[in-house]
Structures are given as C-alpha cells and as structure tokens.
Amino acid sequence: MSKLLLLDIDGTLLDTNKQLPGATKQALIRARANGHQLAIATGRAPFMIGSLLEELAIDTYITFNGQYIAYENKAIHKQAIEPDILERVMDFADQRDHPLVFLNEHKMVSSIDFHPDIDESIKSLKFPHPEMDKEFHRSNDVYQALVFCEEHEERQYHQAFQNVDFVRWHRVSCDILPKGGSKALGIKHLIKSTGHRLEDTIAFGDGLNDLQMMEVAGYSVAMANGHEETKKRADHITSHVDDGGLAKAFDFLGLSR
Questions:
Q1: Where would I find the beta strands (DSSP E) of 128-217?
Q2: Which of helix, strand or coil describes residue 169?
C-alpha cells in the first residue's frame, strides 16, 4: 500500500549541522522506488527549501506550517494573515522592543534594520539577517510572521491576540500563524490532491509545530532529538537525527527495504 510520507526538515531531514545525511537520502530514494510518495511538511517558506526539493526531486510540500501548500509544484492552498492583525501585533511588539519578520513564498523582511535575536535565529537556518521593510505586510500577502522574544515573554502575546497562534521554534523566536493553522490542517488539504487516505499518511518530525501533525497522521515518528511533547504524541521514537534516525525509521517501517 502506497504511503504519503510527510517529512519535517530541521532536526528530521537535516541534521544539527543543517546537512542531509547520505543514509537519509538513500532511504528516501528507496522508499520512492517502493511506490511511496514523499512530501515536505515544514515551518519554512517555499523560497527556503528550493535546493532541498531539487536535490530530493520532491514537488509536493506543506510550508509555513500549513499556510502555503503545493502539489506537483502548483499552489493548491494559501492562507495569509490579516494585515490589520499584523499591524496590531507589530504595535504591541514595538512597545516591548520585540522585532518582527514577515514572510511570503518569495522572501522575508524585517521590521528593524538589525537585531541580534533575528540574527541568531535566522542564522540557525543558514540564512542571513533579512533586509528591513516595515511596510511589507501592508502590500504583500504574509503567510507567516515571526516575533522575537524569550519564552517567559511569550504568554502576553497569547493573551493579547487570541485570533492568531504563536508557536515557539527557537530560544528567541515564535511563529505567528492564522488561528488553527498547522501542518495537520495542511495534510487534510494535501490528500485531496494526492488521493491518499488519512490513514495512509506517515508523519516524521521533532518540534512543537509537529504536534498536531503527529496526532492526525495515520502513523507518526518522532526523532530522539525532538521536543518531549512531540515524542509523547508519536507512535514510534527513532534515533537522533545525527545518528541516522530517519533512515532507521524508514527501515523499521519497511519503507526502504
């Protein structure tokens, strides 16, 4: 039975050095040869994953945690954040000296010329500090934004803005998403195009933005390096990403044999 394999990128496909392990690549190639379909499910933007998609010959992806979905390289679902909400979040954040980053499918921009928290977190993705464009959200669709604050400062955003979701992905950064937006919702949109049933999906992930995906997929695998909450939701926990965890999971499930 063909499965739809939903692959998180950071900490799942890519190791802690943001490299694709050779064993992982070979496992993906064998799984595809066995008739399974590969899809990316990430919090990253489309423009941030182009080289990986090309290397793995993948044309189906859930990005922005479900806000921009493509099947065979054609967008099948888009959901932007309302500009007035972003305006209010930015005003709130400005009062607390917390910068924002806005992203669409093509680029990301910053609300400030430079900030060390932006530099630290964006560099962890191997990208440079974005250029400043404080008006970007007023004339462009924004599918995801980032607010830069520490964990103890995050609660005030949840309390002040209950019509969007804040999901932490870094020590100093939270994703801002439309309310209810998630990779799980992305899967439900995607299978309408791929023809798979929900029970034919297998999700692989490690982060807090993978929680709902773990719950909705037919089967779920968490990396040993994953967040404790993510591992609690998974059907199976594989090895650390730096120890060939994804390849071992594929072998355990009989996907690459």
A1: 144-147, 164-170, 173-178, 201-205
A2: strand
Question: How far is 108 from 84, CA to CA, in rounded Å?
Answer: 19
198 DSSP assignment: G
Q: How far apart are CA 224 and CA 236, in angstroms?
A: 10
Q: Helix (H, G, I), strand (E, B), or coil: what is residue 218?
A: coil
- Reduced to 3 states (helix: H, G, I; strand: E, B; else coil), residue 45 is coil
Q: Which residues pair with 222 in a beta bridge?
A: 205, 237
Instruction: Give catalytic residue positions.
Output: 8
Judge contact between 150 and 172, C-beta under 8 A: yes
Q: Give the model's pLDDT for residue 257.
A: 82
pLDDT digit string (tens) for 62-99? 999 999 999 999 999 999 999 999 999 999 999 999 99
**For residue 41, what is the enclosing H or E element?**
strand 37-41
Q: pTM score, two decimals?
A: 0.91
Give the residue from 5, 24, 36 showing the smallest Cα distance to 202: 5
Instruction: Band the pLDDT of 1: cuts 50, 70, 90.
Output: confident
- Kindly list the structural domains of the chain, giving each domain's residue range(s) and its CATH number in brackets, ordered by start: 4-78+181-252 (3.40.50.1000), 83-178 (3.30.1240.10)
108 closest CA partner among 77, 79, 69, 137: 137
Sheet holding 173-178, edge to edge: 108-110, 100-103, 144-147, 173-178, 164-170
Report helix, strand or coil for 55. helix
Mean pLDDT value across residues 114-125: 96
